[in-house]
Structures are given as structure tokens and as C-alpha cells.
Design goal:
Helix content: 55-70%
Membrane topology: Multi-pass membrane protein
Structural class: alpha+beta
EC number: 2.7.13.3
Keywords: ATP-binding, Cell membrane, Kinase, Membrane, Nucleotide-binding, Transferase, Transmembrane, Transmembrane helix, Two-component regulatory system
Number of domains: 2
Number of strands: 7
CATH architecture of the largest domain: 2-Layer Sandwich
InterPro entries: BphY/WalK/GraS-like, HATPase_C_sf, HATPase_dom, His_kinase_dom, HisK_dim/P_dom
GO molecular function, one term: ATP binding
Radius of gyration: 38 Å
CATH superfamily of the largest domain: Histidine kinase-like ATPase, C-terminal domain
Strand content: 5-15%
Number of helices: 9
Distance between the termini: 59 Å
Length: 334
């Protein structure tokens, strides 16, 4: 190890020896300086330098061994030129830490995947008693009680639905099936689900679909429309919601327009942010800030653009712009 240490410090040694030789050369050239008078300080300095190297060798190797405690001994004679024991120890520590981090990351990923699978399994299990509850609510004779219970059931149903799709979105591309899809069948199915809630709030829904067929994934498209319709009903009272569709420039446009409380202009750029809720009525603790975020994420995978126009106290208009057939062909080929 001493030899290796001296080899690694050869630049120091060469600099010191060069300076001493230079000093002797100056004494040889300069007649006013006696070379013999310089030999004594050169000898003392050389001796001190050797002692210094030995002391530093002991101190540094002790430090390296302390860092390397608990590890296998390393034969530093086999080190490549230009690398110190310290560099080797640091490299080994970094490699060990990297391996540990990789192992922790792998374990965490496995745990998260397991938790995700458990949650999805739990959601599917909960659907059975939820369906039974719905049937029991439908058999109630007390309309006021029936309406209240159905509203709470619907809230749970929609929250579970959000959780289910939120967990699926990261792998949404593997779940897509693009086909000719009827907007009418999806919209009327969603309206039927929200029917009791709409009656409770005195909301009517007008549907006028000039364009009915689109190329999309029916399941995920239904989820997007569900989020937009749910928001329209949630923030409206005693007014109509208009749902229209038309074709323009070979693109189908689906418009959902309500006359509810609307969205503040300063909030519009942030409505698709994860967890964002209105700053206008921030005390509304029923909002999760996830509906529009999930709708936007889902729409991006389907190449659907969502445009929102709103004015406070006047209502909100959401427009779904479906991709053209050429874009859908690209999506199918992915």
C-alpha cells in the first residue's frame, strides 16, 4: 500500500525534488552562493518531506480503512493508474447505496402495484353491495327518503367510479378499444343514472344530437361525459342543461351547456389541475378537484380536446372536439 501511495503522490514528490534540484542548480550557477552551504537545508527539507509523507500515509490509509470497515480488503496494487484508495471506497459506497436504492425502489414499486390491485379488487367487490343497495332504495315507498338515500348512493357511486378510473389511467393505452360509438346511447345512459338527482334539483336536460357516431373508446368516453354532466348537475339548480352535437370541418363537436353558477375567469386556466377547487366558493368541501383533471387526462389519450367557456352566475359550456378519422387511425396503430 505504501508503494501505491507514493506512486499516487508522485506529482508532489517530483515537484519537491525538482525544487531542491533547482535550488542546488542556482547555487552552482551563482558564484556568490556556495553549493556546500545549500546541501544542509536541502537535506533537512528532504528529511522533513519524507517524515511528512510517512505521517500522511498513516493518517490517510487509516481514514480509508475506517471508511471501508466491514467490507472485504482491497488490493490497492491492482488499482488502475490515477485512482486512489479514497476514490475506490467512495465508488464502492456509491455502488452499494445505488443497489440499496434500486432495491428499495423495486420494493416500493411492488408494494404500490399490490396496493393498486388490492384497491381495484376492493372497488369491484363494493359494486355488489352498491347494486343491492340501489335495488333496495328503488323499492322504498317514501319518496322523500328515497330521494335522499339515492343522492347519497350516487355520491358514493361516482367517487368509486373516479377512483377506479384514476388507478387505470396510467395504463389507459392498454385498455383502449376504438370503435364506432353512439353518443346518443352513452349520453342517455348517463342521464338515466343522474335522473333522480336532476329531479331533486329541478333540472331538465335537452338533447339535440345532429352528429351521433364517433370513433372512440365507449367506456372511457362515457367516463369523460359522466364527469362533465355530473359537474353541470352539481352546480346548477332549477334550470335546463343543453346537450348538442354537430359536425364541423370533419370533426364532431359535443357541447354540454348549463346555466349554473359558472366559473370565475381567474379559475378557468386551472380547472384541469389535479385537486384544484373553486376559489370563488372555497368553502364547498364536497368538491374533490379530480373530476375535470381525470376527464382531461382521459381525453388526451383519446385525442379529444376539451374547451370550456364560462361566466360567473351565467353558466358553463363544455365542448368535446373529437379527432378526425386520420388521427384515430394513428391512435389505432399505436
Amino acid at each position: 500500500m505504501l508503494v501505491t501511495y507514493l506512486v499516487e503522490r508522485k506529482s508532489w514528490i517530483m515537484f519537491f525534488m525538482g525544487s531542491q534540484l533547482l535550488l542546488l542548480f542556482v547555487g552552482y550557477v551563482d558564484a556568490s552562493i556556495s553549493v556546500s552551504s545549500l546541501l544542509y537545508p536541502v537535506f533537512l527539507l528532504s528529511l522533513l518531506f519524507v517524515v511528512f509523507l510517512l505521517l500522511r500515509w498513516r493518517a490517510e490509509t487509516r481514514f480509508y480503512r475506517k471508511l471501508d470497515q466491514g467490507e472485504e480488503n482491497v488490493d490497492v496494487m491492482e488499482l488502475p493508474e490515477g485512482r486512489s484508495p479514497f476514490e475506490l471506497v467512495v465508488e464502492k459506497r456509491l455502488i452499494q447505496q445505488g443497489d440499496k436504492l434500486q432495491e428499495i425502489t423495486s420494493d416500493s414499486k411492488t408494494t404500490l402495484e399490490q396496493e393498486k390491485d388490492d384497491l381495484l379488487s376492493w372497488i369491484h367487490e363494493v359494486k355488489t353491495p352498491m347494486t343491492a343497495m340501489r335495488l333496495m332504495i328503488d323499492r322504498l315507498q317514501d319518496n322523500e327518503l328515497k330521494s335522499g338515500l339515492y343522492y347519497e348512493w350516487l355520491r358514493i357511486h361516482l367517487l368509486l367510479d373516479q377512483q377506479l378510473h384514476q388507478k387505470r389511467i396510467p395504463h389507459m393505452e392498454n385498455d383502449l378499444y376504438i370503435e364506432e360509438t353512439s353518443l346518443k346511447s352513452i349520453i342517455f345512459k348517463e342521464i338515466k343514472t343522474l335522473q333522480s338527482w336532476c329531479i331533486q334539483k329541478g333540472i331538465g336536460i335537452d338533447v339535440d344530437l345532429d352528429a351521433d357516431s364517433v370513433l372512440s373508446d365507449a367506456k372511457w368516453l362515457a367516463f369523460i361525459i359522466r364527469q362533465l354532466l355530473t359537474n353541470a348537475v352539481k352546480y346548477s339548480e332549477g334550470s335546463n342543461i343543453e346537450i348538442t352535437s354537430y359536425e364541423k370541418n370533419n370533426q364532431v363537436h359535443l357541447v354540454i351547456k348549463d346555466k349554473g353558477r359558472g366559473i370565475d375567469s381567474k379559475d378557468l386556466p386551472r380547472i384541469f389541475d389535479k385537486g384544484f377547487t373553486s376559489t370563488w366558493k372555497h368553502e364547498d368541501n364536497t368538491a374533490t378537484g379530480m373530476g375535470l383533471y381525470l376527464a382531461k387526462k382521459s381525453a388526451q389519450s383519446l385525442l379529444i380536446k376539451i374547451e370550456v367557456v364560462s361566466k360567473l352566475e351565467e353558466g358553463t359550456t363544455c365542448t368535446l372536439l373529437f379527432p378526425g378519422k386520420n388521427e384515430i387511425i394513428k391512435l389505432r396503430s399505436v
